[in-house]
Each structure stands twice: as C-alpha cells, then as structure tokens.
Amino acid sequence: MNRQLIGLYAARATADGDGVDIHRISTQQRYAQFDPFLMLDEFKGGFDGKQTRGFPEHPHRGFETVTYMLDGAIEHRDHLGNVGRLVSGGVQWMTAGRGVLHSELPIAEQNYFHGFQIWVNLPADEKMTDPKYREFGPEDIPVLSLANGTDVKVIAGTFTQEGQSVTGPVKDVATRPDYWDVHLPQSETVSLPVANDKRVLVYVYEGEVHGSQDGAHQQIGSKQMAVFSPGDVLQIEANESSKFLVLAAQPIGEPVVSWGPFVMNTRDEIEQAIQDYNNGVLV
Fold first, then answer.
1. Per-residue burial over 226-256, b = 16 or more CB atoms within 10 Å of its CB, e = otherwise
2. What is the pLDDT of residues 8-31, one digit of tens each?
3. Cystine design at 99: which of 35, 38, 146, 282 (Cβ 3.0–4.6 Å)?
C-alpha cells in the first residue's frame, strides 16, 4: 500500500546560536503527527560574508540530536570530554539523556558550514539515561545507486532495492530510525520501502518533487516537509533534479512537555531540568 501525503509544512526562516541562519520545522504544536521527531533545522553559517561562531555551549536533556553535514566542517565538544570533527558528509548522533553540555563551532580554516540537525524524542524510560556520543565519517555511510540514476545515502536503517541492500552505521536506537538522503534525477520515480508502523517524513532541500494525495500528485517544494500516512511503500517523483531527506521512526505515543533545550513528559520534569541546570547539576 502506497503512503499518502497527509500534511505539508513550510520551514520558517530564523536564526539561532551565534548568527547561524536556520530554516526550521518545529513540531511542538502538532507533535502527535510527527512523533517521535521534535524538530528539523537546515542550518547555514559563514556564507555571504557573514561571521558566526556557530553554536556555543548549551544544554540538552531528554532526547537525541542528529547532525548531518552537507558542506564545511564543525567541531563538537562536550562536558564528557568528547571532541569530534564533523566534516562534509559526516554524521553525529548524540543521546543527551539526563543531560549534556556541548558546543558546535566552525573549524577555523573553514568558517562556513551547511547541514541539518534533527531532534528525536526518547521514551520516558530512556530520558534520564547516560549521555552518549557517536560520530561517523563520510566513509562510514554507504550509498546505494539505482539503475535510474537515483542515489540513496543510508545514515540509519536498511535500504533494499534492485537486489541490493545496505545498512547505515547508526544502530541500537529506541525508535528504530531510518535516515536517508535521496538524490533523484529529473522526471524519475523512486519507490522506498518503509515499515508500515513507522512515521515517515520527507524534507526537500533542493529541487521539487511530488507524492500521492488521494490519487493525485501533490507538489513538495524546497524547504517543505511532507508527512505521510501509514503504508509499506513511499513513492516520490522528481519534477526536477532534487535532493531530499527521508526520516522514518517508530512513534513513542507518550506525552511531551518541552522548554527550549529540554524535552520531558511532565511539567514537573521540565522544572527539575531548569533547576538542575541553574544549580550546575544538570550533568
């Protein structure tokens, strides 16, 4: 059964960190439709002569942050002593758990960068788990090339097509995520098999594609996020040569209360996170 487009949302232009340009999809007001995804940012820094220090030190609690670089390089540092250099094509998967303080700053010799960060929720019984940092270079992330010229970069999950199968390096995540970067040539169609019980989102960052909606074609333009109904196959056709992210994961189905960099299940837990941070005991 093909998945049908049931929601389409435009990213909002904003800024965050120290002068970083952002196109943001925030799901706070409609989390049930996006569960377990909390936010997607497409970020750019250091372009057009703008100076930025990236994202100076800040806290998180209760979810996971996933950073995928398209261009440039940033350095990650956190209170646990982890230091990572995230380069073009690389991925950082950080479980904030009970608390982490980290920074993401541009590398001095490359003060521009372009990429994505998504926030993925954690179930209640994992929100206070120990924080964890994982980093994968571009050489760790497989790409499956199809006969029609489509390339699928597999960051998380397994992608199978045309007798080939590749699995991304990200494993052992509670929500069983799929994270694919798909490059689709003009006028070509790709059918992406995704488990029926997973939420599926598509974010177009270059070009224009369309998906099915009640038997008709629905356009999904650049800087737009599409939400799809349950089904076994996601079918996308490119109106022009296009690039888009496919995000899929198991919904958690629990209450969500958030405040800035903290995402918990109750207001009391948020108040505790704020108190812990102010008292210097978040971590």
1. bbbeebeebebbbbeebbbbbbbbbbbeeeb
2. 999 999 998 888 899 999 988 899
3. 282
